[in-house]
Write a structure and sequence with these properties.
By secondary structure, the protein is α+β, with helices and mostly antiparallel strands. The protein folds into three domains: about 230 residues, Phosphoenolpyruvate Carboxykinase, domain 1, CATH 3.40.449.10; about 220 residues, Alpha-Beta Complex (Phosphoenolpyruvate Carboxykinase, domain 3); about 80 residues, no CATH class. It is about 25% helix and about 25% strand. The protein contains 15 helices and 34 strands. Strands 1, 4, 5, 6, 7, 8, 9, 10 and 11 form a nine-stranded mixed beta sheet that branches. Helix 4 crosses helix 6. It is globular and about 75 Å long. The relative contact order is 0.12. The structure holds guanosine-5'-triphosphate, sulfopyruvate and manganese (II) ion.
């Protein structure tokens, strides 16, 4: 500590210095000091769990113009650069020591070479800026799931998003740092040079590099949350390795309560690739959301249990309308904290593709000033709102959230669902014969068509192991084996496969709310209350049961 005192004191006021030193953690101080030396910020601000510090971050995002207020109280809009609208896989790499390899399917760079490259891009990147130091927690605080995280960024939008999406973690650092084996995740993000719209200018120098040897992820020249918000997908890659070491699972899944007959509560988790229906499933009217993107599984007291890693949802807004998504529609139209990103704004009101309202022919969007028919900088006609435009809200604002969603022990999981975007092969719903059958033929072999959630062509059919391929940080075989072997000695959830996207003559064969029926059928199946037909690649529903459930 003594080595860094002068450096830390020279950049921060008394209050920030006290918040940092109250943690009394040499590793935290070292990471902060290193970021100062590298990024050379004008000032450094340290936040705790106080409402005041959360409010400071929110206000900063508005005053530094990363977000703008909208008409409804508490709503803001944030824009990412034209080319920075999704996760960018080709520049997302693992830093791997010279004598090691993770898996030939993963994007890797030699550690020293990668570090030199990204540190070169981050050097001096905080000049003229304030560096923000924030503490968050993955999973419920004060629980077996909890992983403390230290986020450093110069983007108040990133920190504000984390305030909505994650649990506060300053007290968790205090709680855990007394343990001998205290371990936390570290994230250092630099926006890089910005244009007049406060978006990263050097998008072609966008990098997201994972240094798993240090539990650190660095990113630069990007603002899109999937590349910058440390606790989202950057943490998932670290968590998969930590889970491997410690004997639990980190998954790209929703979690929900499905309500059975006579008030019975059943719990389901499901892995669908990005933009393939996790949020839409967790938000089915009449059921209760626990989480929509990240779940950790652990065996607790002989039970297979899952917990929501997050505290909010970063959901796709495209096609959100009052008929299919009444709960979220309501949240997006009433006062409360919402960040809209990459939608169209006209007279302080947000518009998006597939909403109820008629979309105006001009406004501000991810291109800047936009008029209908206009081409973006790459010559492509720009849609009014980006297909991967999103909203960020907290669980506490969802009236359909399970009141017990934040349970420190998670929930006992009855069923696990795997599904992808598959226009012509898989049936809408089927049940596996066993855990092994489900993990292998529904999870490990999952194929899905690419979407706007990643940069590149849409509709390309790819292999996407457990919908986690983009986030795997070790050998694919080992990850599958971890799933197969997990919770071996206890009752494991029933595994199901779904496909919402089957098409005939270019048209979807199912409506968006048909998934409500598939979930109700699964709920009855896990309790042995309906029969099923053996279809040789799993069990499928009987016509009369579906007929009754559809009614
Ligand atoms: P990430 O947040 O990227 O991990 O995605 P997600 O899996 O949560 O995806 P989400 O539920 O937000 O769905 C993305 C898109 O799929 C939206 O544009 C939905 O309209 C569409 N979608 C969801 N369910 C259905 C469905 O049953 N049928 C069809 N045709 N489209 C659907
Ligand atoms: C996804 O792409 O799977 C998302 C959005 O949930 S993000 O990971 O933030 O890009
Ligand atoms: Mn996701």
């Amino acid at each position: 500590m003594s080595d860094y005192t002068d450096l830390l004191k020279s950049k921060m006021d008394e209050a920030s210095f006290e918040k940092l030193t109250a943690l009394n953690n040499a590793k935290v101080n070292e990471f902060v000091a290193y970021a100062i030396e590298l990024g050379e910020p004008d000032t450094v601000w340290v936040g705790s769990d106080s409402d005041e510090d959360v409010a400071y971050t929110r206000q900063l995002a508005i005053s530094n113009k990363e977000e703008a207020k909208l008409n409804i109280e508490g709503h803001t809009v944030h824009f990412d650069g034209y080319f920075d609208q999704a996760r960018k896989k080709d520049v997302t790499k693992y830093l791997v020591p010279a004598d090691a390899t993770l898996d030939s399917k993963l994007n890797q760079v030699e550690r020293e070479e990668g570090l030199a490259e990204i540190e070169g891009m981050q050097r001096g990147a905080y000049k003229g800026r304030q560096m923000l130091v924030r503490f968050f927690c993955l999973g419920p605080t004060d629980s077996v799931f909890a992983i403390p995280c230290l986020q450093i960024t110069d983007s108040a939008y990133v920190a504000h998003s984390e305030d909505l999406l994650y649990r506060r973690g300053y007290e968790e650092f205090k709680r855990q740092s007394t343990n001998d084996h205290f371990e936390f995740f570290k994230f250092r993000h630099c926006t890089g040079e910005v244009d007049e719209r406060m978006t990263s200018k050097n998008y072609e120098q966008n990098r997201v590099y994972m240094d798993h040897t240090q539990n650190t992820v660095m990113s630069v020249n990007t603002q899109y949350a999937g590349n910058t918000v440390g606790l989202k997908k950057l943490s998932l890659r670290l968590a998969i390795r930590k889970a491997d070491k410690e004997g639990w699972l980190a998954e790209h899944m929703f979690a929900m309560r499905v309500n059975g007959p006579e008030g019975r509560k059943s719990y389901f988790c499901g892995a669908f690739p990005s933009a393939c229906g996790k949020t839409a499933t967790a938000m089915i009217p009449g059921e209760n959301i626990i989480g929509d993107d990240l779940v950790y599984f652990r065996v607790i007291d002989g039970e297979f249990r899952g917990a929501n890693v997050e505290n909010g949802i970063f959901g796709i807004i495209t096609d959100v309308n009052s008929a299919d998504d009444p709960v979220i529609w309501d949240v997006l139209h009433k006062p409360g904290e919402v960040i809209f990103s990459n939608v169209l704004i006209n007279a302080g009101k947000p518009y998006w593709l597939g909403m109820d309202d008629e979309i105006p022919s001009e406004g501000e969007n991810y291109c800047g000033e936009w008029t209908v028919g206009m081409e973006g900088p790459n010559g492509v006609v720009a849609t009014p709102s980006h297909k991967n435009a999103r909203y960020t809200v907290q669980m506490s604002d969802l009236v359909n959230a399970d009141p017990d969603w934040d349970n420190k022990s998670g929930h006992p999981i009855n069923g696990i669902v795997y599904g992808g975007r598959d226009s012509d092969t898989s049936v809408p719903v089927r049940e596996a014969y066993s855990w092994e059958h489900g993990v292998c033929t529904m999870g490990a072999t999952l194929e899905s068509e690419t979407t706007a959630a990643t940069i590149g062509a849409e509709g390309v059919r790819n292999w996407n192991v457990m919908s986690n391929m983009d986030f795997l940080s070790m050998s694919v075989g080992r990850y599958i084996a971890n799933n197969l072997n997990f919770a071996k000695d206890i009752k494991r959830p029933t595994v199901f496969g779904t496909n919402y996207f089957i098409k005939k003559d270019g048209q979807f064969l199912n409506g968006k709310l048909d998934k409500a029926v598939w979930m109700k059928w699964m709920e009855l199946r896990v309790h042995g209350e309906v029969e099923a037909i053996d279809a040789a690649y799993g069990r499928i529903p009987k016509f009369e049961d579906l007929q009754r459930l559809f009614k």
